[in-house]
Amino acid sequence: MSLVLDPAAQNLLFREARTANTFTDEQVTDEQVQAIYDLVKYGPTAFNQSPLRITLVRSPEARERLVQHMAEGNRPKTAAAPLVAILSADNEFHEELPQLFPHFPQAKDAFFSERPVREGAATLNAALQAAYFIVGVRAAGLAAGPMTGLDFEGVRKEFLDDDHTPLMVVNIGRPGPDAWFPRSPRLAFEQVVTTV
Known about the structure:
By secondary structure, the chain is of the alpha+beta class. It is built from nine helices and four strands.
């Protein structure tokens, strides 16, 4: 059985897409980010909770503050990327559930009244949305450089608040010279899929 999606689109989103380590200086516009969000917001989350929050780091001052919280090897690429996004989970996502899950507005209190439950749900579902976001960046013809090598608590204190948990930092732009490391191996179908 073949996939319905055009092979060129499959390649753009998956087979030829890579984590970029260098970028050109071509800017990433707010319109491009809006188009990415307007596509990926349709990716599923439990109860449609949509807990992902995106902080765009554009000013030189904010970039300098962020770079200080990145792991040593991630600092140069974060400093040079045209756009950097901090992806975080909103642990108070349940406040939006009456709007996002209107056929059962009681879900806010019935399932998510306790903070530890919300934090677990927010982390899982925002991570799903982060993956959608990376694929959306690729769909826009851009490259993404997602990274978790950072001081999470430092980033939270510097850019977020106690209600948001940082998940990753994503450098975004057009790939520059020598942007790619060699492709790492992937597991075979038989190693991943079990039929019971």
